[in-house]
Write a structure and sequence with these properties.
With about 250 residues, the protein is of the alpha/beta class. The chain is built from 10 helices and 8 strands. A 4-stranded parallel sheet has the order 1-2-7-8, sandwiched between helices. The protein has a two-stranded antiparallel sheet with strand order 3-6. Helix 1 crosses helix 10, helix 2 packs across helix 3 and helix 4 crosses helix 5.
Length: about 250
């Protein structure tokens, strides 16, 4: 999905950098397949520094984030990372209220945090990482359980570089991550593209309402979260919105 969008942006004349976050895919880092919001924010910061070092790249560097990366990008901006303009496509932006809605209420969140703590203690004592499936349509213990073809289909997101694992000790950091809390500190121009049929649009709306700078919200009708990842004409329409946003000013 990131490479698909990078290619489309390159075809529009942009230098486009995409990368695997640490602990994933072709990037180094251990534990493998470990979701760490704080480290991902650092990776975004480092990616910007790399782009700035390239002689053929001007200093008007934009950011393009999809799904959960929008939250990590938000914290990076809050921490002082300077982007010219930013686009969020189908952003997953949550807070405590939305987390409880998605993960089984207060009790569900509490149970996952307890499992996370136990797995972390085990890792610290034995250096052994407890994993569950990242996505499954048969195993209810998976981090994401349901008919999520995008992650399971090798012709879509189910590529060999993705391990389909979720480190249990990562639950706590993910559940306590609150990207909506960064919104009122952001003045960087931001475009959000979303759909009411995609994942947690109410989080994007709340985030958008708190932004202090130039902003725009574009709604697509009857588009699912995974349509945004790789389906036409949605991806091309999303890129067209992004290009128009980036070329302003």
């Amino acid at each position: 999905m990131p490479n698909l969008y990078a290619k489309k942006l390159a075809e529009k004349g942009f230098v486009a950098l995409t990368f695997d976050f640490r602990n994933y895919g072709e990037s180094d880092g251990t534990p493998r397949n470990f979701e760490d919001p704080n480290k991902k924010v650092i990776d975004i910061t480092n990616a910007l520094s790399y782009l700035e070092s390239l002689p053929f790249v001007n200093k008007r560097i934009n950011a393009f984030a999809i799904c959960a990366s929008s939250g990590y990008m938000s914290e990076a901006i809050t921490n002082g990372v300077k982007f010219n303009r930013v686009v969020f496509i189908a952003p997953w932006l949550h807070n405590e209220k939305i987390t409880e809605l998605v993960y089984g209420g207060k009790e569900g969140v509490k149970n996952l945090k307890e499992k996370s703590d136990l797995a972390k203690v085990k890792f610290e004592k034995t250096n052994s990482v407890e994993y569950i499936l990242g996505v499954s349509d048969t195993d209810k213990t998976a981090a994401m359980f349901g008919p999520f073809d995008y992650y399971l289909n090798p012709k879509r997101g189910g590529i060999k570089e993705w391990g389909n694992q979720f480190a249990v000790m990562a639950w706590k950091g993910w559940l306590e991550f609150n990207p909506i809390s960064f919104a009122d500190k952001i003045t960087t121009p931001i475009l959000i593209v979303h759909s009411t049929e995609a994942a947690i649009p109410m989080g994007a709306e709340e985030f958008y309402s708190k932004l202090k700078g130039e902003k725009k919200f574009t709604w697509f009708d009857k588009v699912t979260q995974f349509d945004f990842y790789d389906q036409e004409p949605i991806t091309s329409k999303s890129v067209a919105e992004a290009v128009d946003w980036f070329k302003q000013k």
